Amino acid sequence: MEMEEKDQTFISEIKTNKRKSPKITVIGGGTGLPVLLRQLRKRKADVTAIVTVADDGGSSGVIRDYINIVPPGDIRNCMIALSPMESMKKEIFQYRFNSDDKFFAGHAIGNLIIAALTEMKGNNIFEAVRILSDMMQIDGHIYPAAEEPLLLKATFKDGTEVLGESHLAKYRKPIERVTVHSYDETKKPTPAKAVVDAILESDMVVIGPGSLYTSILPNLMIEDIGKAVCETKAEVLYICNIMTQLGETEHFTDADHVRVLHEHLGKNFIDTVIVNTESVPDEYLNQQKNEEYLYQVKYDFNGLREQGCHVISSEFIQLKDSGVYHDGAKVIDEVYTLLSSTNQRMQ
C-alpha cells in the first residue's frame, strides 16, 4: 500500500511539473523570435526554437558564403534570449564590429564564434550549437531548421522568379509562392530528427511573429517540417505581425497572412491566431529604417474564422527604438491561458 502511495505521488509530481513546464516549440526567425523566447525563459517553459537557415544578408550571409555553414545570426539572437548569462557577457557576444574595421566590418562576435565551433566540429552545426548552449547555460533547445544553408526561391504572381531571401523585397511585386532548395541540386532539404520530434512532441507549436515569406515560410517549406506541423497533436498558434512589410505583405490583412500559410502547406493547419487590435500611432507609420515596415496589418475577423481559426485579439503593441513590436509579456500571458484551456478540453 505504501509503495502504491509513493507511485501515485510520483505520478502526481510528473503531472504537476508538466503543467509548470509545457513543451513549447517556436518556429521562425528575425527579431520576433527572441522576444518570445525571453519571456518563455522567464516562465521556465520547456522551449525549443527552430530557426530559419535561408538568411543570406548581412554578417550571416557573408559567413555562410565564405565558410558554407548555416547563417548564424538568428541562432545567435536566440541563444542570447535563452541564456541567463550576465549582461556584460551578452554584450560581448552581440558586439558588432564598426564599419571602418575593414576585415571584420559588420560581423557580430557571436556569429564568428558559432562559425568557428561549426568548423571545429567538422561542419556540424548541431554539435556546435549544443556545445555553445552548454557554455551559455541555455535551458532549452535551439535547432537550425536544416543542417545546411538553404536558398530561398520566390515566384511572383506574374511568373517571374528571384533567388535569395535578401533580394525578394526589392521587386515590390505580389508573391505567389516561396520554396527552399539545397545548394546541392541533387539533395532535398532535410531537418534533423530532433527538429521533427520537437514539433510532434510539443504541447504547443508557435509560429511567428516574423517576416511571412523570409522568416516563417522558409522553415515550413522544408517538407518534413511542414508535414510535422500539419500532423502534430499540439495546438498550433500563429502570432500575426503588427505591421506590413515592404515587398512582402503590402496591403495584407491578418487573414491574408494565414491564407498564405495554409495555401503553402495545402491545409488549414493553424488552430489559433493572436492578432493585435490596438492602433499604431501615426508617427510610427511608414517611418521605419530602410522602409522595412509600411502600415498596420488590418484586422479581418470573419476572414480568420472562415479558415477555421480561433482568434485571440487584444492590445499587444510595444513601441521602442522608433519601432513597433509585440509586447512579449502580454503575448506569453495569452499563450499560457490558451495552454490551460487546451489542457482542460483534453482532460
Average pLDDT, rounded to a whole number, is 87
Helix coverage percent = 40-55%
Alpha-beta content class:
alpha/beta
Alpha-carbon distance between the two ends: 27 Å
Q: What is the beta-strand fraction?
A: 15-25%
Q: Which overall shape is indicated by the principal axes computed on the Cα atoms?
A: globular
Q: Roughly how many Å is the radius of gyration? A: 20 Å
Unreliable stretches covering 5 or more consecutive residues: 1-19
Please write the string of helix (H) and strand (E) elements: HEHEHHHHHEEEEHEHHEEHEEHEEEH
Please give the count of helices: 13
Walk across the major sheet and give the strand order.
3-2-1-7-8-10-12
Number of strands: 14
Characterize the main sheet: 7 strands, parallel
